[in-house]
Amino acid sequence: MTIFQIEDIHTYYGDSYVLQGLTMSLEEGQIVGLLGRNGVGKTTLVNSLVGFNHPRQGRILFKGQDITHEHSYKIVDLGIGLVPQGRRVFPSLSVEENLIVAARVGNGQGWNKERIYELFPRLKERGRNRANTLSGGEQQMLAIGRGMMSNPDCLILDEPSEGLAPVVIQQVWEAITKLKEMGLSILLVEQNVALALKLVDFVHVMSKGVVVHSSLPDDLWANEEVKSNYLGL
Amino acid sequence: MDFWILQAFYGISYGALLFLLASGLSLIFGVMRIVNLAHGSYFLLGAYVALTVIWVTDSWLLAIPAGALTIAIIGLAMERIFLRQLGFAPLRQVLLTVGFALLFQQGALDLWGGDNMFIPVPEYLNWSIQTGTLFFPVYRIFMIAVVAVVGVILWLVIEKTTLGAVIRATVDDAEMARGIGIDTSTISMGVFALGAFLAALGGVIGGGFTGVYPGLDFEVLPLAFAVVIIGGMGSLRGALIGSMIVGLMDNIGKGLFPELSYFTLYAPMVLILAVKPTGLFGRE
Predict the structure, then answer these.
(1) Which residues pair with A81 in a beta bridge?
(2) Contact (Cβ atoms closer than 8 angstroms) between residue B186 and residue B72
(3) What is the full DSSP assignment across B59-128?
(4) How many separate domains does chain A show?
(5) Contact B172 A72 (CB under 8 A)
(6) Tens digit of each residue's pLDDT (9 = 90 or more) over A5-43
(7) Contact criterion met (CB below 8 Å) for A95 and A134
(8) C-alpha distances in angstroms, B14 versus A18, B120, B197, B255?
(9) Which tens digit of pLDDT belongs to each residue from A76-92?
(10) Mutate to test the interface with B, among A49, A54, A67, A92 (most CBs of B within 10 A)
(11) Nearest CB to B176: which of A71, A84, A104?
């Protein structure tokens, strides 16, 4: 079943025309990768999906419901969790507060503070610390945990490997795998192609505001033309 | 020595009053990024409403909540009906709030006239404690006590409750707060009304010793801004420390060099800004 249906959306960032008629879809229970070089509009797409930057044209359907012009906070209630680029944890809140402010009943999968701490034991140790005292890896774990606190059906991860050491990426990737095994649908936006392909069931490649290639990860890996033209490999 | 003790006491009690005014201004800026130039008007209007309640009911105790709540409702309406529509547009917000400040000023003049009035303080607060040669007005002690209670309640709510964490999250990153499901529009409305409430409370209580008169609104506004600039936008602790600094500087400055009073108040502000542009406790 299709959980996300994005139909011909056009989104501007200020005056610049970023998404130029982007169409793609996400199947339920899969990890779908969205790849592309810096500046092709990946984060603008994420911002359109979560209501930070509404498209001027086209529409976005989530579980069959039109969310194109919905408020962000309502989109969360409908079942979309966001782990944004740059993590954006709330710096002056403690780790624990970062989690509890995001708590929602959502789809009733029962994610709460304790279960986030089970997924990322490191966060429990840092529970009372302010988020701005965490390392990059800990902040990423916190951002993922915060995204799960709303009990979403679909989690959007924007560049989760950015700036992290390989050993930390390993931990984060294991956690994402666990979430997928529990049935969560995931949109993984990444610049690091090799890392993304380890995880995804299906992949879209973006260039200049549109999707230029969609395939299984192995097919993309074998497609030298797409890799060199759009991914710089 | 007596001079310094008295000036410190007057400075702290005046600072307490400024805290009521500035804490709301600071919270509103923190949550909504709105520079509310009508904030001094809430102070003045709160005092006028309280005065009217006293004329009608003869009850000072009733006048305090009546003044503060009436202005909270006016603030809430101003936010919902006007500011909300602008979105994030600092220049238009400033113009709108300055427009309101002028309307409130003229409205107050039409309704209450141009005379200098006092909010009559009840007998049991209208006396002084004498120690040696010094007299400490009980009303000023009462002001400090009220602000201590209000300050502790505010601190507990903001620092220790989930609602407080939600407000702080909105101050940190409002867009991201929406992205995790927080309805920041409702939070803004609440904080704006709270800010108006606190400013009006300051006006009602301050009206017992500064008096109530046309122009008071624009007299206290720059002081509130000095507090917020010194303490840092969006920080409760900053508002407290800033209020005390401004309260003390204003009193001591006027006591020592009356002809330089604005200099002694604003020079420290400029110095702090030069060293730390975000204010003592500001972020970013």
Answers:
(1) A155
(2) no
(3) -HHHHHHHHHHHHHHHHHHIIIIIIHHH-S-HHHHHHHHHHHHHHHHHHHHHHH-S--B-PPPPGGGS-E
(4) 1
(5) no
(6) 999 999 999 899 999 999 999 999 999 999 999 999 999
(7) yes
(8) 54, 18, 18, 14
(9) 999 999 999 999 999 99
(10) A92
(11) A84
**Residue for token pair 């409002």:** B174
Whether B42 and B266 have beta carbons less than 8 Å apart is answered as: no
ipTM of the complex: 0.94
CB contact under 8 A, B177 and A82: no
B165, B171, B175: residue with CB nearest A97? B165
> How many angstroms away from the CA of A45 is the closest CA of chain B?
14
Report the CATH number that the domain containing residue A179 is assigned in CATH: 3.40.50.300
Residue of B nearest to A81 (CA): B180
Structural domain of residue A146, as residue ranges? 2-230
pLDDT at B284: 55
Q: From the centroid of its chain, how far is CA A97?
A: 22
CB B198 within 8 A of CB B182: no
Contact A150 B184 (CB under 8 A): no
Q: Does B168 touch chain A (CB under 8 A)?
A: yes
For residue B78 the two structure tokens come to 């101003």
Contacts of A7 by beta carbon, 8 Å cutoff, 6+ apart: A23, A58, A59, A60, A61
CATH architecture of B2-275: Orthogonal Bundle (1.10)
Minimal Cα distance from A156: which residue of B? B179
